[in-house]
């Protein structure tokens, strides 16, 4: 944190930082899309919003291996963006750059690593759920059964997140859990 800076300094750092975060979200979705296309799966659209996005595929992956590669590509891109941002933060800090820039790059690194980790939770429709589906599909040879298991895991992950959020509100009086 760098308190006491002029408002223009915060804006001068916040705007490019927000743009860099949106670029990282786009990179996450483009990674899914490029790998999907390489695996022979058409991509019909990419939609971004403030905290994520979705690559809409025009079909199912032909193999469990392709499914795994497509699903893992996004979190790998987010992790790479986080490592890059963290490296830049360290370089700016080591070079004696402004603390506000170091803080912004550190935030960007943390958000991208957190995005990668969250997306790897093992429940559909998250990338981790798609990875789970691919692993189960490869093990059992049954894509439909693997998809049902990943969907059930997604419901369990969703319920766990709801319980954590309610607990946060009730026990820590923090409305962020909502």
Quick synopsis:
With 178 residues, this protein is mainly alpha-helical. The chain has five helices and two strands; from the N terminus they run αββαααα.
SSE layout and pairing:
Layout: H1 7-38, E1 43-49, E2 52-57, H2 64-94, H3 99-119, H4 127-140, H5 143-172
Describe the 3D structure:
With 178 residues, the protein is mostly helical. The protein is 72% helix and 7% strand. Strands 1-2 form a two-stranded antiparallel sheet. A hairpin with a 2-residue loop joins strand 1 (43-49) and strand 2. Helix 1 packs antiparallel against helix 2 and helix 2 packs antiparallel against helix 3. The longest helix is centred in the first third of the chain and has 32 residues, at 7-38. The mean pLDDT is 94.
Give the quaternary arrangement of the chains: single chain
Shape: globular
Largest sheet entry: 2 strands, antiparallel
Given helix and strand content, the structural type is mainly alpha
Low confidence ranges = none
Order of helices and strands, N to C? HEEHHHH
Mean pLDDT: 94
Number of strand segments? 2
How far apart are the termini?
26 Å
- Beta-strand percent range: 5-15%
Q: Number of helical runs? A: 5
- Share of helical residues: over 70%
Radius of gyration, whole Å: 19 Å
Strands of the biggest beta sheet: in what spatial order?
A: 1-2
